[in-house]
Amino acid sequence: MLALLASLLSFLLVTVNANPDSETVLILGGGVAGIIAAKTLHEAGIDNFILIEARDELGGRMKSYRFGGKTVELGANWIHGAKPVSGPANPIYTLAIKHDVKMQYNDFYGSLSTFDINGTADFVDVCRKAFADHAKLTIAGGERLSRSLVDLSARTGYALMGSKPQTHYEQAAEYFHFDMEYAQSPEQSSWIAQAMNANFTYDFIGGKPLKDTLLSIDERGFKTVVQAEAAEFLQPSHVMFNSTVTDISYSDSGVSATLDGGRVIRGAYALCTFSLGVLQHDDVRFHPELPVYKQEAIQSMVMATYTKIFFKFDRKFWFDTEMGLYADPERGRYSAWQSLDHPNFFPGSGIIFVTVTGIFAERVESLPDSQVREEAFSVLKQMFPNIDVPQPLDMFFYRWHSDPLYRGSYSNWPPSFFLSHYHNLRANLGRLYFAGEATSLKFVGFLHGAYDEGLNIAGEIIKCIQEEDECAPMKRVPDITNGDGKSYGRFNMQYSLY
Ligand SMILES: Cc1cc2nc3c(=O)[nH]c(=O)nc-3n(C[C@H](O)[C@H](O)[C@H](O)COP(=O)(O)OP(=O)(O)OC[C@H]3O[C@@H](n4cnc5c(N)ncnc54)[C@H](O)[C@@H]3O)c2cc1C
Ligand SMILES: *[C@@H]1O[C@H](CO)[C@@H](O)[C@H](O)[C@H]1NC(C)=O
Ligand SMILES: *[C@@H]1O[C@H](CO)[C@@H](O)[C@H](O)[C@H]1NC(C)=O
Ligand SMILES: CC(=O)N[C@H]1CO[C@H](CO)[C@@H](O)[C@@H]1O
Questions:
Q1: Pairing mode, if any, of strands 269-272 and 432-434?
Q2: Is residue 163 part of a domain?
């Protein structure tokens, strides 16, 4: 009798432990999406959440680094489409103003010097045409979408618009306007998704660049935008730092996350904000295994790589403009240079950086630092044949593609990724939800995409917690067929940031 009572008691205890709280929400990842999701829960009166983060600080791909006596940004650095002519501002801009983050307008396309293998070569007019071609591509892509025509690659789109780069100058100019945005080439990118992305973030009205690309030059780091915001509502008890998730178990009644030490954290709901790259590389195992439609969606989106290589020199010997574009015979080879030693940014700093993208960036990551330094140095010598280019004092770049917490920089939508894939990438699995830049339709890749999705998906979870009857599974398409797969369906493409 006593034994029976004891076993009944222990059964009850186990049951209670398995359901600690009907409302605990696990937020997996402390980047923009995770922080904004936590804030959204908090504002809805839900404070029993736990944010689990592998690193020892918040911010994720907002990652600053002390280099050459200044704070440089290894990850996100710009607020794109800060303040459109009409409609509300980019929410990252609003947060930056609120937390007094120092920003400076970056005249990406207007303040430009151009070079080739023999030094200065004036092809600014070619760049102007590439800007206009990109705008044309965007407008025509939007028209395809509104007519429900199938998606094509941006390369096809460019060709149909009459833009067919032949010379190294034309290729460099196209690279500067396209790859520097999407971190992949036009042949690797969806025409329609490119059009949506550009239309929603940039104001193309009039086809002129607006002064709405701001560069953070804050000594505390751009991450202050979200760290200061988090400090307003996050209690230390809400956050587990230095906690890497290895396994996630999910069902219709709860979710648990296993940490690398074996500890299991249980919740009623979980929001996974790990990057697309993390999901693609099986850095986290799911139990049960993810359904085939989810796997197809995850593997069909692309995690592209965007790498900034920083150099510190004892003095500035380069161009006086903000940007420098170098046309190499190989498209995208150390082409896009940006001076931080500029009156608007860090005058006197001796810092310049070059950005590489896509496959070339993955190649660079796989090389030893010394070889990258040597290659980029020889490009500088070609750009400045009449100057005795000094050896750099320091060089640094971050390997996003090989970091198991990211596996790349941000998502880029390929032509074979259909709107139904998008729904499947974003859909919940029982009590497990997904959010991040990759799940944003309007702003894929951007900080404001991560922000928007933290807000939207936390909203889905709140509906489930507070209004049981509204807890419907999110849209998914288990079998994407030729009939529904290629159509984007009817979609309102009116320009609006929010
Ligand atoms: C080089 C670069 C340049 C960029 N430039 C810009 C820009 O100028 N403007 C712009 O708008 N966007 C830019 N972006 C994109 C922007 O940074 C991202 O869209 C945004 O930060 C993504 O936020 P997130 O919350 O979706 O993901 P993340 O920031 O990746 O957050 C996910 C979090 O999960 C954590 N994590 C991962 N795996 C685990 C695990 N197993 N266990 C526990 N924790 C884990 C990570 O450490 C991270 O903190 C850039 C990105 C890069 C890399
Ligand atoms: C996380 O780990 C780092 C490095 O080991 C350590 O300095 C820091 O105190 C840890 N932070 C927490 C909150 O455990
Ligand atoms: C560079 O200079 C060499 C030698 O004058 C010349 O043969 C070559 O055509 C030039 N290349 C370019 C891209 O200007
Ligand atoms: C589909 C759509 O609305 N595309 C728009 C993108 O922005 C340009 C410029 O405002 C419009 O001309 C397109 O119609």
A1: parallel
A2: yes
Q: Check the CA dihedral 66-72-74-76 and report its sign.
A: positive
With a Cβ cut-off of 6 Å, ligand 3 is lined by 116-118
Q: Would 81 be classed as within a structural domain?
A: yes
Asked if residue 54 belongs to a known ligand binding site, the reply is: yes
Ligand nearest to the CA of 199: 4
Does residue 318 share a domain with residue 264? no
State the total domains in the chain. 3
Q: Assess whether 467 and 421 both reside in one domain.
A: yes
Please provide residue 188's backbone torsions phi and psi, each rounded to the nearest 5 degrees.
Answer: -90, -5
Q: Is the peptide bond before 288 cis (omega within 30 degrees of 0)?
A: yes
| CA 495 to ligand 4 centroid distance, Å | 7
Of 118, 333, 383, best ligand 3 pocket probe by most atoms within 8 Å of the beta carbon = 118
In a domain, 406, yes or no: no
**245 carries a ligand binding annotation:** yes
**What's the DSSP call for residue 429?**
B
pLDDT of 7 reads: 45
Whose Cα sits closest to atom 8 in ligand 4? 139
Nearest-atom number in ligand 1 for the CA of 246 is: 41
- Specify the CATH number for the domain of residue 16: 3.50.50.60
pLDDT above 80 (res 460) = yes
For residues 347-372, give the mean pLDDT. Answer: 98
Question: Distance (Å, rounded) from C-alpha 11 to C-alpha 213?
Answer: 59
CA 200 to chain centre: 15
Which of 396, 424, 448 terminates a domain? The answer is 396
- Measured from the CB, is residue 139 less than 6 Å from ligand 4? yes
Q: What is the span of the domain harbouring residue 324?
A: 64-107+304-396
Query: What's the gap in Å between 16 CA and the centre of ligand 1?
Result: 36
Q: What are phi and psi of 89, to 5 degrees?
A: -75, 160
Ligand 2 contact, 467 CB (< 6 A): no
CB distance 373 to ligand 1 below 6 Å: no
For residue 193, being part of any structural domain is answered with yes
Do 316 and 462 belong together in one domain? no
Closest CA to 183 of 447, 411, 441, 463: 411
Are 286 and 362 members of one domain? no
Over the stretch 126-165, which tens digit does the pLDDT of each residue have? 999 999 999 999 999 989 988 888 899 999 999 999 999 9
Q: What is the position in ligand 4's atom list of the atom closest to the CA of 143? A: 1
- Specify the ligand 3 atom closest to the Cα of 121: 14
| pLDDT tens figures, 386-435 | 999 999 999 999 999 999 999 999 999 999 998 899 999 999 999 999 99
